[in-house]
Amino acid sequence: MNDHQFFFFSFLGLAQNSGLFGHHMDFPWQANADFKARLSRLFGCHLTSVTCKLLALVTIALFFRAVLLHSFSAYGVMEWNNLDLILSRSLLLNSDVGIRRDKFLKVPQIVWGLNNQKIAFARACLTARMLNRTLLMPSLSASLFYKEIYRLQPISFDKVFQFERFNSLCNGFVRLGRYSDLKNQTPVYDLQKGSGRKWTVERDLEQLKQSSRGPVDKYEVIRIVGKNPFLWHDHWPVKDYARVFECLVLVDEIAKEADRVVSKIRQIGRKLRRKTETVQNNFDAEGSSLPPAPYVAVHMRVEIDWMIHCKNLEQRSGISQICSSKQEIMERVGNIVGLEFPTVVYLAVADSLLNDSSVLGGWKKGLHPFEKKKLGVDGIYKKHPYLIQSAIDYEVCSRADVFVGNSFSTFSSLIVLERTQKMIRMGITSSCDIDVRWPSYAYNIPGESNSPQIWMTNMSDSSLKAISYGSNAISC
């Protein structure tokens, strides 16, 4: 067999082994016992290795192309671009790009508020990605207890977000697995996350690097014990977190609940506008076609516990632009340039404020404030645990035509991140001083004419710190 024949048959053999021609073809040299041994010696590795198989396939394919190109160039009978396309697709289809499905990472139950849990989940995903492992689907927390961990009510990830949809959208970046995927081939390896002042970002990163190779990497499951993932050191840029967040799609049941709330808000908005049209034009506008009524969503943090927290935070940080009173919020929202009146203002407030009529009074003429009780949708919320209620409110706020929040709130920060992503997809890289769709504002930072400051997430940040813990540096 000459050199051309050897590489030709070698290519066909590896192509069959990789699935390029399917698994139903039999070749006459398959009975040759030294076939794989010859290729193993040629590439210096074992053909049982996925990496070696891919290396062999690529190398032989390129050599095969060069040989045949030389042999058949005079005849012009082969479409080389098509061959390149076939080979490229085959390599992609037969490889899990950087994500192993036989190695897993397990993390502690994810706790605290919805958006703290989303950050913790994303951090766990990115940790698994760094270790080249599939993240075992974690438990979220349906209830909200900061200190009494034993009282946390666990809820499965796939009861809140779509599991298969997540893997589809994040394919090739991060991956979720189920416990049924485990083969229990090795004992679980417990990895203790460091703590204390001596445990630096650098030491944490080095621990992860060591766990991605050597003896630890041989374990089927690495179980991280200790801290909630939200408290882990951050090693990833904002854009990596945003990539994970984009894959989180609510299950249909929760999404439909949010649809009902948004529909109710827009319905009231249409009625208000229809009434205004009737008065101004002195005719019955009931049958007139009005465009969908826009609404403003305000994440209004004025609860007693929040005010205590933000005052302490202001003292510790030396930043005065964290707390805002009800009066300041109302005044600044009313000063937003370009608002069309009448407009419904949806107030995302804690249940403790639902009986506080003061949050509904004092708004600028033309702004009509509603919270879930006045809106008549509190029954939708009450039948769900805390986590689901927060998820519904998040959707209602994120879909608003204008959003106003607090830049030191994780809830507000993740909504602005999502809205920034929407603008970027529309080709907008800056919302500062221009009229754009999906504008966001921070009411705790005064802008021009005592309006809230325009807010856009800095997607080039090297970490999520500004979002996780808040900042008054909000790009504009």
3D architecture notes:
The chain is an alpha/beta fold. Helix content is 43%, strand content 11%. The protein has 17 helices and 13 strands. Strands 10-9-8-11-12-13 form a 6-stranded mixed β-sheet, with helices on both faces. A 5-stranded parallel β-sheet has the order 5-2-1-7-6. Strand 12 and strand 13 (452-454) form a beta hairpin. Helix 10 (252-281) crosses helix 15.
- What's the SSE pattern? HHHHEHEEEHEEHHEHHEHHEEHHHEHEEH
Strand order of the largest sheet: 10-9-8-11-12-13
- Give the structural class: alpha/beta
Which residue ranges are poorly predicted, with pLDDT under 50 across at least 5 consecutive positions? 2-33, 64-96
Number of strands: 13
Gross geometry: globular
CATH topology-level name of the largest domain = Rossmann fold
Distance between the termini: 70 Å
Examine the secondary-structure arrangement and name the CATH architecture of the largest domain.
3-Layer(aba) Sandwich
Q: What is the gyration radius calculated from CA atoms?
A: 29 Å
Overall domain count? 3
Report the β-strand fraction as a percent range: 5-15%
CATH class of the largest domain equals Alpha Beta
Topology:
Layout: H1 3-18, H2 35-43, H3 50-72, H4 80-93, E1 104-106, H5 114-130, E2 134-136, E3 139-141, E4 154-156, H6 163-169, E5 176-177, E6 189-192, H7 201-211, H8 214-217, E7 221-225, H9 238-245, H10 252-281, E8 295-299, H11 304-317, H12 326-334, E9 343-348, E10 367-370, H13 372-375, H14 378-382, H15 386-398, E11 402-405, H16 410-425, E12 440-446, E13 452-454, H17 465-468
Parallel strand pairs: 1-2, 1-7, 2-5, 6-7, 8-9, 8-11, 9-10, 11-12
Antiparallel strand pairs: 3-4, 12-13
